[in-house]
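lol forgot to send this yesterday, sorry. struct tokens for the thing we talked abt
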């Protein structure tokens, strides 16, 4: 009996696509606001908003009155400004190049200052302008990525304070082990940051906490938090049941065949059928960011059932062993997300690839279109 397909595609012209649930993302922001009770929110939307789509996420954040956006490159900042996101402050985190100063200021992006030398470079350029450079001083507390050491940062702070071309907006640092709040390094980082705040003569936006620290340690929320993954509903898994992922990765069965016992599937013959079986082909591969490490270990959902990926994942396609299961060309395939009672999470995929959810999410590239549902 041919059952009617349970999952007729909403996007008949697409083979593979990402769906972002607007209401779920907005509910996460609403939940965060509720939990924070007045602390400001800076939403990190670097790397295409963790793969969710930079501009869409930025617009929703603005609609929900998120206080700040943070990116990690000048070009991400420019994209936001050129798309008309003009009134919301945007911090470009990390270190900038000298050649980028002019554009950072022109596009009214907040600069992250972590060396005396860079502060002087900005000053030299700004002396011919009437406007001020908005800056956040980044302090080194233990991450050893960007940021100036305690004593130097005092000198930089005094300089920024003295030179009229600067507006000091914030003071910040970043935790190296935020999931372990009791670790000696985390304690040391928090102690150093506290010492800074206590010695600081003026109130600024003090910010330290990423997602894990926001959930685990309200005492270090200070005036603003910077939770990225949490707003996308993914971190830390066991503590964030109030937050849900808004990200699904879907495709459609493009081909179907029966193979005989002893036949192999795909490049390198890494899978050999132990009996006659049914193979479905799905048009997504490592060229889209669906990791090759999932070959012969990953699973997909078709008609609300889990099926194993067999053979090596190709650049543009992968194969699934349906065994006795049923699937037809055109059926929806869920690679990440919910179908019926079954669900494949980003965490599950990350674990199979021996990496973190961040790397999985940011790996899906421009070839996969993003749709809002
Ligand atoms: C990426 C980033 C964050 C957000 O981290 P999550 O773990 O996603 O919350 C916060 N601060 C800085 C400096 C970052 O680079």
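and heres what i got for the seq, position by position
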């Amino acid at each position: 009996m041919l059952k009617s397909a349970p999952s007729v595609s909403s996007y008949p012209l697409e083979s593979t696509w990402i769906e972002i649930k607007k209401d779920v993302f907005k509910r996460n922001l609403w939940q965060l606001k509720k939990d924070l009770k007045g602390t400001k929110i800076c939403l990190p939307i670097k790397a295409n908003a963790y793969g969710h789509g930079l501009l869409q996420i930025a617009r929703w954040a603005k609609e929900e009155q998120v206080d700040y956006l943070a990116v990690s490159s000048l070009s991400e900042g420019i994209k936001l400004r050129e798309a008309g996101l003009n009134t919301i402050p945007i911090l470009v985190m990390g270190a900038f190049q000298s050649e980028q100063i002019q554009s950072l200021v022109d596009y009214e992006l907040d600069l992250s200052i972590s060396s005396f030398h860079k502060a002087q470079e900005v000053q030299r350029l700004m002396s011919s302008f009437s406007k001020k450079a908005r800056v956040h001083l980044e302090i080194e507390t233990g991450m050893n990525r960007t940021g100036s050491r305690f004593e130097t940062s005092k000198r930089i702070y005094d300089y920024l304070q003295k030179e009229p071309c600067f507006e000091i907006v914030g003071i910040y640092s970043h935790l190296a082990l935020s999931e372990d709040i009791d670790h000696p390094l985390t304690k040391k980082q928090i102690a150093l940051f506290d010492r800074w705040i206590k010695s600081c003569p003026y109130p600024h936006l003090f910010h330290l906490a990423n997602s894990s620290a926001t959930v685990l340690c309200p005492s270090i929320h200070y005036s603003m938090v910077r939770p990225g993954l949490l707003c996308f509903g993914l971190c830390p898994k066991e503590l964030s049941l109030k937050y849900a992922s808004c990200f699904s990765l879907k495709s459609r069965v493009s081909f179907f065949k029966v193979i005989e016992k002893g036949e192999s599937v795909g490049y390198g013959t890494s899978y050999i059928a132990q009996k006659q079986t049914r193979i479905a082909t799905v048009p997504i591969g490592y060229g889209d960011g669906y990791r090759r490490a999932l070959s012969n270990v990953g699973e997909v959902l078709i008609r609300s059932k889990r099926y194993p990926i067999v053979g090596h994942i190709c650049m543009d396609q992968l194969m699934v062993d349906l065994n006795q299961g049923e699937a037809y060309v055109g059926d929806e395939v869920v690679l990440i997300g919910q179908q019926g009672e079954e669900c494949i999470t980003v965490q599950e995929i990350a674990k199979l690839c021996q990496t973190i959810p961040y790397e999985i999410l940011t790996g899906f590239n421009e070839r996969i279109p993003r749709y809002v549902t």
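DSSP finds eleven helices and 20 strands in the chain. anyway ping me if u want another try
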